[in-house]
């Protein structure tokens, strides 16, 4: 099985709805810094290599494959049904579409960095309250603080607390 490399912030399936079809689905993109527009295949828009990769996890692509199979696929099907009937009267479809849009709104580098920056001071407070001021010098605390500066702060912290020798929550 091929490992997914390019991980989208906004799913390629959703982007195809805005694309010109043909041999490839192409959308018009704009580079705001260069102030230039250009056509781009949806396979290479709104994402980056290994964005959802969980380094150190037994299956480093579990987050990407779960997003694709468990959330995006069913939600895109729900969106198609909503567009066909023209309303949100089906509660399950409405919830699936809103969940998909929520994921798009929060799954991006800027929000990930902002979350990591807000979690680190909270993590320091928790370590001090559990272990005292000297606890910040422990190897476990150093590892936890380092994880909270990574691109997967919340997932890394959860993984750390679940599998470390530190007391659990």
From TrEMBL:
Q: Please tell me the species this chain comes from.
A: Pseudomonas hygromyciniae
Q: Can you tell which superkingdom this protein's organism belongs to?
A: Bacteria
Pfam families given in the database record: DUF4238 (PF14022)
| Name this protein carries in UniProt | DUF4238 domain-containing protein
Upper taxonomic classification of the species? Bacteria, Pseudomonadati, Pseudomonadota, Gammaproteobacteria, Pseudomonadales
């Amino acid at each position: 099985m091929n490992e997914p490399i390019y991980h989208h912030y906004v799913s390629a399936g959703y982007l195809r709805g805005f694309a010109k079809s043909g041999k490839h689905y192409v959308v018009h993109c704009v580079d705001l810094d260069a102030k230039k527009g250009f056509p781009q295949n949806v396979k290479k828009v709104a994402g980056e290599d290994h964005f959802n990769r969980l380094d150190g996890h037994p299956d480093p692509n579990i987050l990407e494959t779960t997003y694709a199979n468990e959330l995006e696929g069913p939600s895109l099907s729900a969106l198609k049904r909503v567009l066909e009937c023209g309303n949100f009267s089906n509660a399950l479809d409405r919830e699936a579409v809103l969940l998909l849009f929520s994921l798009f709104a929060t799954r991006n580098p800027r929000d990930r960095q902002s979350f990591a920056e807000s979690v680190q001071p909270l993590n320091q407070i928790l370590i001090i309250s559990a272990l005292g001021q000297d606890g910040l010098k422990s190897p476990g605390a150093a590892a936890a603080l380092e994880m909270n500066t990574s691109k997967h702060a919340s997932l890394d912290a959860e993984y750390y607390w679940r599998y470390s020798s530190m007391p659990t929550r």
